[in-house]
Specification:
four-stranded mixed sheet; three-stranded antiparallel sheet; 14 helices; 45% helix; elongated
């Protein structure tokens, strides 16, 4: 492959070894002296004078740190399509035996075990390895960890089985139990930590009938997705996160709920605060809605301190 093709494949950067395979030392010095090429890191050059893209910076980091360097964490997630935004820095992992000086804009970790794949020529941590790594980040809450895993599974980037296998190797993972318990719900279609909690704490814990998750539908000529849907009794449940349901978002929710009701179906809408802290009350509300629409079953108490019956009594007396 000629140098121009290599530079194009590597987003405009080449290594010293790649350059000297097709040109002399003097020609390389001339390109750098005339600023036709720019030095990104020692031994890594930018072959144009315009802004260097994030992909170019990631290639520069991999070339500088050598053949064992692997994109990791948010950088690997971005390449895989799990992350939505370009990371500020490039994150790589190296084997513990490799020692290199730190460079600006590059975060380096050293690990005993690295599972990796190649994507568009770049070496990056494997999908399951990446997801479990991100879920263990100091800033990741339990819900964050579950949401990362759910998003990767629903995008078909990784399977639940692969996540479970990788998690089994991480005995000290901070969210190990939560992820293990969530795998089944994620496999059923949950796309966020909040949806997993709703299934676990509201529906399953209280013995309510199952609901399909993230169901495609059409409403008023638009394609939408229902968070939860029970077609038999015409009940829809929506769980609203912290953002996206204020102001105009709330107006859209109200319009969506009206049009759903006009089709003979009812929407139970709840916030993340209620899902986390008022699960028994939500279960009582959902059971009451289902029963009013012909559900013949019963409920179960989620624990000795479950308050579903108290909330049902309030429903019957109000």
């Amino acid at each position: 492959m000629d140098l121009e093709s290599i530079a194009w494949r590597q987003a405009g950067v080449v290594s010293r070894a790649q350059a000297l395979a097709v040109m002399s030392e003097g020609q390389l010095r001339w390109l750098l002296h005339r600023r036709r090429w720019l030095t990104v890191f020692p031994g890594v050059y930018q072959t144009h004078t315009g802004p260097l893209s994030w992909t170019g910076r990631s290639w520069a980091a991999l070339l500088h740190y050598g053949p064992h360097a692997t994109l990791a964490l948010d950088s690997a997630a971005f390449v895989l399509g799990i992350g939505r935004q370009e990371p500020h820095n490039v994150q790589i992992v190296l084997p513990q035996s490799v020692r290199r000086d730190p460079r600006p804009g590059v975060e380096v970790q050293r690990r005993r075990r690295i599972e990796w794949i190649q994507r568009r020529g770049q070496q990056l941590t494997a999908p399951a390895f990446t997801v479990i790594d991100l879920a263990a980040a100091p800033s990741a809450s339990r819900d964050d960890a579950i949401s990362i895993a759910a998003r990767a599974v629903q995008k078909r980037i990784v399977t639940v089985e692969a996540l479970a296998a990788e998690l089994a190797r991480r005995r000290a993972h901070p969210h190990r139990t939560a992820l293990e318990l969530s795998c089944g719900v994620i496999a059923d279609g949950a796309e966020s930590g909040l949806e997993v909690v709703y299934v676990d704490k509201v529906i399953r814990a209280h013995g309510l009938p199952p609901m399909r998750m993230n169901v495609p539908d059409r409403l008023g000529g638009s394609r939408i997705r229902r968070d939860f849907d029970n077609e038999e009794f015409g009940v829809v449940a929506e769980v609203d996160g912290v953002l996206g349901h204020e102001g105009f978002g709330r107006t859209l929710d109200a319009r969506r709920d009206r049009k759903t009701l006009a089709r003979g179906r009812v929407t139970a809408r709840q916030t993340w605060v209620e899902v986390h802290y008022q699960a028994c009350e939500l279960a009582a509300d959902l059971f009451g809605i289902l029963r009013s629409r012909g559900y013949p079953g019963h409920y179960t108490r989620c624990s000795r301190t479950c308050s579903i019956e108290r909330h049902l009594i309030v429903h019957m007396t109000s």
